[in-house]
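User: Continuing from earlier, I have the next pair ready.

Assistant: Great, send them over.

User: Here they are, in order.

Assistant: Folding the first of the pair now:
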Amino acid sequence: MNNVETLEASDSRVIRSILRSMANEHWSVAEALDEYDIPEDLRDSYEAQISEFFID
Protein backbone atom coordinates (compact mmCIF):
# COMPACT_ATOMS: atom_id res chain seq x y z
CA MET A 1 0.00 0.00 0.00
CA ASN A 2 1.28 3.47 -0.77
CA ASN A 3 0.98 6.44 1.58
CA VAL A 4 -2.21 7.77 -0.04
CA GLU A 5 -3.94 4.39 0.22
CA THR A 6 -2.81 4.06 3.83
CA LEU A 7 -4.19 7.51 4.70
CA GLU A 8 -7.49 6.77 2.94
CA ALA A 9 -7.85 3.47 4.80
CA SER A 10 -7.07 5.22 8.07
CA ASP A 11 -9.62 7.96 7.30
CA SER A 12 -12.24 5.33 6.53
CA ARG A 13 -11.67 3.59 9.86
CA VAL A 14 -11.88 6.89 11.74
CA ILE A 15 -15.08 7.86 9.91
CA ARG A 16 -16.69 4.50 10.70
CA SER A 17 -15.76 5.01 14.36
CA ILE A 18 -17.17 8.52 14.30
CA LEU A 19 -20.45 7.25 12.82
CA ARG A 20 -20.72 4.55 15.51
CA SER A 21 -20.03 7.11 18.23
CA MET A 22 -22.60 9.50 16.80
CA ALA A 23 -25.21 6.77 16.99
CA ASN A 24 -24.19 5.38 20.38
CA GLU A 25 -23.54 8.68 22.12
CA HIS A 26 -26.16 10.77 20.27
CA TRP A 27 -23.45 13.21 19.20
CA SER A 28 -23.74 15.74 16.42
CA VAL A 29 -21.11 15.68 13.70
CA ALA A 30 -19.35 18.65 15.31
CA GLU A 31 -19.30 16.94 18.72
CA ALA A 32 -17.91 13.75 17.21
CA LEU A 33 -15.19 15.61 15.32
CA ASP A 34 -14.26 17.38 18.55
CA GLU A 35 -14.14 14.10 20.48
CA TYR A 36 -11.89 12.53 17.83
CA ASP A 37 -9.66 15.63 17.74
CA ILE A 38 -10.02 16.04 13.99
CA PRO A 39 -7.91 19.06 12.92
CA GLU A 40 -9.74 22.12 11.59
CA ASP A 41 -8.19 21.77 8.14
CA LEU A 42 -9.65 18.25 7.73
CA ARG A 43 -13.12 18.86 9.14
CA ASP A 44 -14.77 19.89 5.86
CA SER A 45 -13.49 16.72 4.21
CA TYR A 46 -14.67 14.52 7.08
CA GLU A 47 -18.07 16.23 7.21
CA ALA A 48 -18.53 15.67 3.47
CA GLN A 49 -17.65 11.99 3.79
CA ILE A 50 -19.92 11.55 6.81
CA SER A 51 -22.82 13.23 5.01
CA GLU A 52 -22.64 10.56 2.29
CA PHE A 53 -23.90 8.01 4.85
CA PHE A 54 -27.16 9.88 5.47
CA ILE A 55 -30.22 9.91 3.23
CA ASP A 56 -32.19 13.12 2.79
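And the other member of the pair:
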Amino acid sequence: MATLNFTKNGDKWVAESTVNKDYILHVERASGGSFSIYQRSTSSGQYKACSPLPASIVYDAGQVIDYAFGHGVYPSGGIHLRFESGSEVTMAEINEGA
Protein backbone atom coordinates (compact mmCIF):
# COMPACT_ATOMS: atom_id res chain seq x y z
CA MET A 1 0.00 0.00 0.00
CA ALA A 2 1.37 3.42 -0.94
CA THR A 3 0.27 6.86 0.17
CA LEU A 4 -0.66 9.32 -2.57
CA ASN A 5 0.47 12.87 -1.82
CA PHE A 6 -1.84 15.45 -3.38
CA THR A 7 -0.60 19.00 -3.89
CA LYS A 8 -2.52 22.10 -4.96
CA ASN A 9 -2.03 22.90 -8.67
CA GLY A 10 -4.19 25.84 -9.77
CA ASP A 11 -7.78 25.00 -8.87
CA LYS A 12 -7.12 21.22 -8.59
CA TRP A 13 -5.40 18.89 -6.12
CA VAL A 14 -3.01 16.58 -8.03
CA ALA A 15 -1.05 13.37 -7.33
CA GLU A 16 0.88 10.99 -9.59
CA SER A 17 1.82 7.33 -9.26
CA THR A 18 2.95 4.35 -11.34
CA VAL A 19 1.35 0.90 -11.16
CA ASN A 20 2.41 -2.45 -12.57
CA LYS A 21 -0.79 -4.39 -11.93
CA ASP A 22 -4.47 -3.90 -11.09
CA TYR A 23 -5.01 -1.59 -8.12
CA ILE A 24 -7.45 -0.31 -5.54
CA LEU A 25 -7.76 3.41 -4.93
CA HIS A 26 -8.99 4.94 -1.66
CA VAL A 27 -9.38 8.73 -1.42
CA GLU A 28 -10.87 10.87 1.35
CA ARG A 29 -11.61 14.51 0.59
CA ALA A 30 -12.72 17.63 2.44
CA SER A 31 -15.83 17.83 0.24
CA GLY A 32 -17.20 16.41 -3.00
CA GLY A 33 -16.73 17.62 -6.55
CA SER A 34 -14.95 16.34 -9.60
CA PHE A 35 -12.32 13.60 -9.66
CA SER A 36 -10.39 12.62 -12.79
CA ILE A 37 -7.80 9.97 -13.59
CA TYR A 38 -5.35 10.20 -16.49
CA GLN A 39 -2.86 7.59 -17.76
CA ARG A 40 0.12 7.16 -20.03
CA SER A 41 2.25 4.12 -20.78
CA THR A 42 5.54 5.98 -21.19
CA SER A 43 7.63 7.80 -18.58
CA SER A 44 7.18 11.08 -20.46
CA GLY A 45 4.63 12.49 -22.84
CA GLN A 46 0.99 13.44 -22.57
CA TYR A 47 -1.63 11.91 -20.31
CA LYS A 48 -4.93 10.64 -21.72
CA ALA A 49 -8.18 10.49 -19.78
CA CYS A 50 -8.65 7.06 -18.23
CA SER A 51 -11.91 5.74 -19.62
CA PRO A 52 -14.48 4.57 -19.17
CA LEU A 53 -14.88 5.89 -15.63
CA PRO A 54 -18.33 5.93 -14.09
CA ALA A 55 -19.93 9.38 -14.44
CA SER A 56 -20.46 9.39 -10.66
CA ILE A 57 -16.67 9.51 -10.15
CA VAL A 58 -15.88 12.06 -12.83
CA TYR A 59 -18.53 14.67 -12.02
CA ASP A 60 -19.28 14.37 -8.30
CA ALA A 61 -17.43 11.60 -6.56
CA GLY A 62 -18.39 12.67 -3.03
CA GLN A 63 -16.05 12.76 -0.06
CA VAL A 64 -14.87 9.15 -0.20
CA ILE A 65 -13.78 7.25 -3.31
CA ASP A 66 -13.15 3.49 -3.20
CA TYR A 67 -12.70 1.89 -6.59
CA ALA A 68 -10.83 -1.06 -8.11
CA PHE A 69 -9.11 -0.64 -11.48
CA GLY A 70 -7.82 -3.10 -14.06
CA HIS A 71 -6.13 -1.84 -17.22
CA GLY A 72 -5.59 -5.24 -18.83
CA VAL A 73 -2.11 -4.61 -20.22
CA TYR A 74 0.78 -3.19 -18.21
CA PRO A 75 3.91 -2.17 -20.14
CA SER A 76 7.33 -2.98 -18.66
CA GLY A 77 7.64 0.50 -17.12
CA GLY A 78 4.13 0.37 -15.68
CA ILE A 79 1.20 2.69 -16.26
CA HIS A 80 1.77 6.24 -15.09
CA LEU A 81 -1.29 7.75 -13.44
CA ARG A 82 -2.32 11.31 -12.65
CA PHE A 83 -5.20 11.96 -10.26
CA GLU A 84 -6.96 15.34 -10.14
CA SER A 85 -9.45 16.27 -7.44
CA GLY A 86 -11.75 19.30 -7.43
CA SER A 87 -11.55 19.46 -3.61
CA GLU A 88 -8.76 19.06 -1.06
CA VAL A 89 -7.63 15.47 -0.46
CA THR A 90 -7.15 14.66 3.22
CA MET A 91 -5.95 11.04 2.76
CA ALA A 92 -5.29 8.79 -0.23
CA GLU A 93 -3.83 5.32 -0.74
CA ILE A 94 -3.23 3.11 -3.74
CA ASN A 95 -2.88 -0.64 -3.28
CA GLU A 96 -1.66 -2.87 -6.11
CA GLY A 97 -3.22 -6.33 -6.31
CA ALA A 98 -1.34 -9.55 -5.65
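Worth noting for the second one:
The CA atoms of residues 30 and 68 lie 22 Å apart. The longest helix spans residues 55-59.
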